[in-house]
Design goal:
8-stranded antiparallel barrel, 203 residues, alpha+beta
């Protein structure tokens, strides 16, 4: 790989790490947190208890929506990417007894153009993960989903033209991870500390 091509890949590594971990709260506090309810703190949620009718169930990531957000964010950062695409699926299973199960099979692709260098990339992540979750429905804008004990059970990342590039899928881990939730009978929107939100449809 030429020096300019390597530089293009490094730009993409840094940018995609920000974008595709969009639901992951940043434990370092460097990224801005989503707005919190005024002068109030959420009650400590109890795993799997409370008003959970909205979130309990099986959900599928709306990949076209997430792809559009990701592409717009990368272009906004000045990343010289074209032909950006994202295909595959991510399935969330949230059970009444406090289990969060995540099955991911996502492929991200595009072409980085830096000077005379053209670097096509295509990365597929197949991952199985689980966690425990808690719920607080006191927030007036929706609810708060607390994720704990995140564990990646199996993961495999492969791709062409990446040479060490890791493009993580939307994840829900992080120390003291809390996600803002807005959901109804058919859709659920999750927002953590990252730049993107993740829209899911009930299965």
């Amino acid at each position: 790989m030429t020096r300019s091509a390597a530089s293009a890949s490094l730009v993409l590594v840094a940018s995609m790490a920000l974008v595709l971990a969009g639901c992951t709260p940043d434990p370092s506090g460097d990224n801005p947190e989503p707005p919190a309810p005024e002068e109030s703190e959420p009650q400590q949620p109890a795993d799997g208890l409370g008003d959970t009718a909205c979130v309990v169930g099986t959900w599928q990531l709306v990949v076209p929506d997430y792809r559009l957000q990701s592409e717009a964010y990368l272009l906004g950062l000045g990343v010289p990417i074209t032909e950006f695409d994202m295909t595959g699926s991510q399935i969330l299973r949230i059970t009444q007894d406090g289990l969060l199960d995540v099955q991911t099979d996502l492929t991200t692709s595009g072409v980085i153009v830096a000077g005379d260098s053209i670097v096509p990339i295509s990365v597929t992540t197949v991952e199985s993960a689980s966690a425990e979750w808690g719920w607080d429905a006191t927030d007036s804008t929706g609810g708060l989903l607390e994720v704990a004990l995140w564990e990646v059970l199996e993961t495999n990342t492969s791709g062409a033209g990446t040479e060490g590039l890791e493009v993580p899928p939307p994840r829900f881990d992080g120390e003291n991870a809390t996600l803002l939730v807005d959901c109804d009978a058919e859709t659920m929107l999750l927002q953590g500390g990252g730049p993107l939100s993740a829209l899911f449809e009930r299965q």
